[in-house]
Sequence to fold (160 residues):
Amino acid sequence: MNAITYRTPETGDEHKISACIGASADLSEITDGTPEGIAFWKRICDPEELRERIFSDEKMLVATQNGVVIGFIAFRRGNHLSSLFVRREFVGKGIGRELFTRCTNSFNEITVNSSDLAVGFYQKVGFSQSDDRFFKDGIWATPMRWTHDRHAANAEDQHH
Fold:
């Protein structure tokens, strides 16, 4: 297996990131199938939107293998994790965890509105639910929060 490279996205990566997001889940798994939900999903995957994000000062990383983006993480408003996608065929190989871990050093706290599909992943990396599940833009989301101090304490507990 060829090595996976983790790096900051560059101009020209927007179509590869869009393909990665599209290959991470089916519309039926992510949205409720309404025009509103589908429009929201298409906006997330839009290469022009992604290009704007690459030029922003938001924290983001891609995981690539053989020139293909296989994972993507991005933050908005500083510490809010707005996107974390891994191509379906690479799920369970530690790519999402590695993308997340490489971004945590500069944050004391991270928030996310997790899709139903990702709640288990976020719990595994130390997030806990911080508010009631809500429905917006055709997608159910669970607000979650991760804190550096709590995560470090949990890791310490596991070593004893």
